[in-house]
């Protein structure tokens, strides 16, 4: 029987792993299918993690976190959790490789995945010119033109990153104001090889057997159509939370969710179900910052230790 099962190995899950094991829990397992670190490892430049003055990649920021947790006894299971089932006062954790674990408490820290924008050709060319990760795929477009779609922090930060290796970046946004931090917007405005293509709808991404050859956009005011001649299209239009492990066989969810699928929690990260906590981007009102996810994980772990006595 596990004391605590942590579902997800991003900043929230890893910090909960650190605090719970260092706080005395003996049998704590973190379930993470891929490499621990979370979605932030796909970010190219982090400049707002407190105490880390120099700009660094998400991969570099997270590199030492797993080892620090393992030092205190956190175990890592490389498996995807398919379902969490409540059985009396404990929980069953079912994994995609048909294993079953039992836990006295569970922390959901699964975060989110990139959302698709829904334009024509997006699915067809995904992985063949359409990408949601500039650090992973930017290299393929060195010296070439690319388009970035979106108007939030992710789109603007990644557009800026791509501008350093690509000949030109079209920043394509459906409105003429951005949601990103003012300092990031300033970087964009000052960068000569970024062209802002605002107030447009993406009509389609087109190409041939070799991949993407361009992006068709339509001006929202005039209806004018423009083709952007780019072999790379990066989509950053927000994220969807990963709440699937909470879904039960009858279609209901194990605990209360918001209308958009985030887990409802209180200030201690407790969900509506006793013994179940949620932390990081999966929870309601998450600020979606690494430092906040880490803080959530610590808050939950402190409460879990008290709960287990
Ligand atoms: P976001 O803030 O939700 O922005 C998504 C952008 O995509 C918006 O500009 C939105 O347009 C646009 N969009 C949404 N659906 C679209 C569609 N179907 N077609 C075209 N455009 C579409 O998402 P995000 O940038 O991924 O950021 C998520 C959260 O993480 C935010 O809270 C952000 O602050 C945070 N974040 C922080 C940092 C940092 O602090 N360094 C870095 C990255 C992310 P509208 O504006 O018109 O709605």
Automatic annotation (TrEMBL):
Reaction(s) this enzyme catalyzes, per UniProt: [thioredoxin]-dithiol + NADP(+) = [thioredoxin]-disulfide + NADPH + H(+)
Gene Ontology cellular component terms for the protein in this record: cytoplasm
InterPro entries: FAD/NAD-bd_sf, FAD/NAD-binding_dom, Ferredoxin-NADP_redctase_2, Pyr_nucl-diS_OxRdtase_2_AS, Thioredox_Rdtase
Keywords: Disulfide bond, FAD, Flavoprotein, NADP, Oxidoreductase, Redox-active center
GO molecular function: thioredoxin-disulfide reductase (NADPH) activity
Protein origin, superkingdom: Bacteria
Entries under Gene3D superfamilies matching the protein: FAD/NAD(P)-binding domain
Enzyme class, UniProt record, top EC level: oxidoreductase
EC number, as in UniProt: 1.8.1.9
Coiled-coil parts of chain: none
Domain FAD/NAD(P)-binding: 3-297
Cofactor: how bound: Binds 1 FAD per subunit.
PROSITE patterns: PYRIDINE_REDOX_2 (PS00573)
Cofactor names: FAD
Family according to the record: Belongs to the class-II pyridine nucleotide-disulfide oxidoreductase family.
Description of how the protein assembles with itself and partners: Homodimer.
Protein name: Thioredoxin reductase
Organism: Aliarcobacter vitoriensis
Gene: trxB
């Amino acid at each position: 029987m596990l004391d605590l099962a942590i579902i997800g190995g991003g900043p929230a899950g890893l910090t909960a792993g650190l605090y719970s094991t260092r706080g005395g829990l003996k049998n704590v397992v973190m379930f993470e299918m891929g490499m621990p670190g979370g979605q932030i490892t796909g970010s190219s430049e982090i400049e707002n993690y407190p105490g880390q003055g120099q700009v660094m990649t998400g991969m570099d920021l997270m590199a030492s976190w797993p080892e620090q947790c393992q030092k205190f006894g956190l175990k890592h299971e490389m498996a995807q959790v398919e379902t969490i089932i409540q059985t009396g006062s404990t929980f069953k954790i079912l994994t995609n490789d048909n294993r079953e674990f039992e836990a006295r408490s569970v922390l959901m820290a699964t975060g989110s995945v990139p959302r698709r924008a829904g334009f024509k050709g997006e699915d067809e060319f995904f992985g063949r010119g359409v990408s949601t990760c500039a650090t992973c795929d930017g290299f393929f477009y060195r010296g070439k033109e690319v388009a970035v779609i979106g108007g939030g922090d992710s789109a603007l930060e990644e557009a800026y990153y791509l501008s350093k290796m690509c000949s030109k970046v079209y920043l394509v946004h459906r409105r003429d104001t951005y949601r990103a931090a003012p300092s990031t917007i300033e970087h964009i405005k000052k960068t000569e090889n970024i062209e802002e293509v605002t107030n447009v709808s993406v009509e389609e991404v087109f190409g041939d057997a070799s991949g993407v050859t361009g992006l068709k956009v339509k001006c929202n005011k005039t209806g004018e159509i423009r083709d952007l001649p780019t072999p790379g299209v990066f989509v950053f239009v927000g994220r969807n939370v990963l709440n699937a492990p909470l879904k039960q066989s009858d279609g209901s969810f194990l605990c209360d969710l918001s209308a958009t699928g985030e887990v409802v929690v209180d200030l201690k990260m407790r969900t509506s179900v006793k013994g179940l906590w949620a932390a990081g981007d999966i929870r309601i009102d998450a600020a979606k910052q690494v430092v906040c996810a880490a803080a959530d994980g610590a808050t939950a772990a402190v409460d879990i230790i008290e709960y287990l006595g």
